[in-house]
Write a structure and sequence with these properties.
mainly alpha; two-stranded antiparallel ribbon; about 0% strand; single chain
Length: about 375
């Protein structure tokens, strides 16, 4: 079971690349230094130059590619650029929210597990390193030259846009790992809260004052968890918005490549498999985020069902029943959900709109492709 403590070894890494402000894990205080602001500003400028050079290189040196394909490829590049740039900017603008987020998570951890100063195993760190190694190996496979005689196009790709793709995919992986980890931790805390309520059912002290205090305590914990989900929803807007959109454009680009341009770069089956694995990384990242958001929503519904079951064991005239009824109404009114600036909800139901939009745009582009 992963908790916020297990993220401690990774926080310096995320702060170093700029996706998290420097956090003092002892008091969960965020102090934005001038050096960090300068570093983020330099990264934003550098990545913007990368993207502009990449788009120009793809337009000039790959002029033989059809216009619809170049448009989809350019949109994918812009969306990845937006994801990285907005994530860097959010780490500076909303740095206080990060401190509030970790404070709330630590308070809930103390309530559920007692003493916070526990041994911090390298659980998430090992997963993170394993994911990065897999990504690095797939990129080496994907960027391998098509033959022993490196072509001119390959050198142009290395100089102009291969490094941009690699860096942006690395940042996307880091952001997705951070988001999924925090979502999983929040889901685990909701699950712990539900188990605590189920334990109250077996105490058989429904008319006693301690039972009422227990319900009030669980209600406060739920309020903190709802605050955490709202903070997550606000802090990771770039991830919730850009990654599903990039998944759409990449799938569309991949299908166009398979049908019309499969021999454009290399005629070997190996390169086609490498292209598939390279894109599959991003698709898997998208689905992991959708599933993690959906798990939290489902856990909140289970919590409400547990409250209803607990009401059946209490006299309707008792004070604990009235308090539990207010708690249940609060859960039903305050629905935990994640959205991308209100454009769409982020849950596993988004899979069908992604597939539907990819199919729709694919058939539309096919019409223009056939005319050309």
């Amino acid at each position: 079971m992963a908790t916020v403590v297990h993220l401690k070894p990774l926080l310096p890494i995320f702060s170093f690349i700029g996706v998290l402000p420097p956090i003092n894990f002892n008091n969960n205080c965020v102090k934005l230094t001038k050096s960090y602001i300068i570093k983020v500003s330099a990264l934003v400028l550098l990545f913007t130059i990368f993207s502009i050079a990449s788009v120009i290189a793809r337009t000039i040196f790959l002029e033989h590619r059809p216009t619809p394909y170049k448009i989809v490829d350019g949109i994918t590049t812009v969306l990845l650029w937006l994801l990285v740039i907005l994530s860097l900017i959010y780490s500076c603008i909303h740095h206080q929210l990060y401190g509030k987020l970790f404070r709330q998570l630590n308070e809930i951890h103390k309530e559920c597990h007692g003493d916070f100063r526990i041994k911090c195993p390298m659980l998430l760190t090992r997963k993170f390193i394993f994911i990065l190694i897999c990504q690095f190996l797939i990129m080496l496979w994907y960027y391998k030259p098509p033959n022993w005689m490196w072509t001119e196009r390959y050198w142009i790709g290395i100089i102009c846009y291969f490094h941009e793709e690699a860096v942006f995919h690395f940042y996307a992986t880091c952001m997705a790992f951070l988001v999924v980890s925090l979502l999983k931790i929040s889901k685990q805390d909701l699950k712990e809260l539900r188990f605590k309520l189920q334990e109250l059912r077996g105490l058989q002290i429904y008319e006693e004052r301690p039972f009422l205090n227990q319900i009030k305590s669980k209600q406060k914990t739920f309020t903190k968890l709802h605050t955490i989900t709202r903070i997550l929803n606000h802090l990771f807007i770039p991830t919730f918005l850009c990654i599903p959109l990039t998944c759409r454009t990449w799938l569309l680009q991949f299908f166009l490549y398979i049908i019309h341009m499969i021999n454009d770069y290399s005629t070997t089956v190996e390169y086609q498999l490498a292209s598939f694995c390279f894109g599959l990384m991003f698709v898997m990242v998208t689905f992991l985020i959708l599933l993690a958001c959906d798990e939290i929503m489902q856990e909140s519904k289970k919590l409400m069902i547990t409250c209803y079951d607990l009401q059946d064991c209490i006299s309707i005239y008792s004070e604990p029943y009235q308090e539990l009824q207010r708690f249940t109404e609060k859960i039903s009114k305050i629905k935990i959900k994640f959205s991308a600036l209100g454009f769409f909800e982020v849950n596993k139901g988004l899979v069908f709109p992604i597939v539907g939009s990819v199919a729709t745009y694919f058939f539309v582009i096919e019409q223009f492709w056939n005319r050309n």
